[in-house]
Amino acid sequence: MNPAHPHRAPHLDVDRLIDDRRIRTVVCCGSGGVGKTTTAAALALRAAERGRRAVVLTIDPARRLAQSMGLTELDNTPRAVSGVDTGSGGSLDAMMLDMKRTFDEVVEEHTTPEKARQILANPFYQALSSSFAGTQEYMAMEKLGQLRHRADWDLIVVDTPPSRSALDFLDAPERLGSFLDGRLIKLLSGTAKTGGRTYLKVLHAGFTVVSSALTKILGGELLRDVQTFVNALDTMFGGFRERADATYALLKRPETAFVVVAAPEPDALREASYFVDRLSQDAMPLAGLVLNRVHADHTGGVGIEQAIAGAERLEAADEHRLTAALLRLHAERLRLAARDARTGERFTSAHPDVPVARVPALAGDVHDLDGLRQVGALSAGPES
């Protein structure tokens, strides 16, 4: 072990991961703003150009990145990405999750046409399918299930939604299923079937306070929308629970691999640490951590103190201002590299067995396939 890195983690071999034909799904997860979407797209592109028939499911990617992959339309349908090297027999499709459209598809698939029309037109459903907490995470997994049932691809790469907490992704299916199977929803569904008068008698008999509070909070019209919605949805309750359970089973299978994505920042690595612990707790298959935007420490050159001292001498002599500026820039980069090393060390100390792939910071944003290829190559590069 390198004495300069007493807690050096094992290296995450990205190429070995994406080349493994037993791996059918790679789930990229982590907090927002760490390059998760770019990582997912880069891994899918690299897999395709190494012979996999890959599809990447992205969640609201940056416009330039979307355009670079040929995703000019916000669409729920996988589309072929042009410009991919298919010489090894692979291919790449890409899509962006349309949360509401996916929810609509679930309704249409699991109810009769008449009930589907009732549900899709219901104001409460329209609000639920567009903005209910956890819906985006749940629908990402619904879409994953749909893609897995098709034989078009042998690798699916999922970019998880930018949740407030990385843990929201794992909790969302259970949370939405619990909501739809919940006591209040069951009550509304059951009493709605007995007719309006009996419905009112039941509420007045045992739930006057609750109904009064709900009417004040939601309004009578919205409460009636909820009642109508759950009455139309009653045949789907078991389906939501079954699919939530199926989602967990899918995520736990050995053909699934989780890749946690983070940046060398305390908050991002704290989220990554929580996520690693949760994956371990739930016995889900963790491949490793991709640590993005790492500032490299090019050892053997001018050190921080030397660079600053040299810059100060040149500035005091009022000469070679450009050289002085470059020396200060060099010192700043070394400070950033030292900071990244310390931050990463805290994670690897807590999780010494989690493989890590370190991706150097790039000079600019990724906005085309060449940029994605560069990120993929750096992710799969040798341990530095």
From TrEMBL:
SUPFAM superfamilies: P-loop containing nucleoside triphosphate hydrolases. It comes from Haloactinopolyspora alba. Residues 24-298 form the ArsA/GET3 Anion-transporting ATPase-like domain. Gene3D superfamilies: P-loop containing nucleotide triphosphate hydrolases. Keywords: ATP-binding, Nucleotide-binding. Pfam families: ArsA_ATPase (PF02374). PANTHER family: ANION TRANSPORTER ATPASE-RELATED (PTHR10803:SF26), ARSENICAL PUMP-DRIVING ATPASE ARSENITE-TRANSLOCATING ATPASE (PTHR10803). This is Arsenite efflux ATP-binding protein ArsA. GO terms for molecular function: ATP binding; ATP hydrolysis activity.
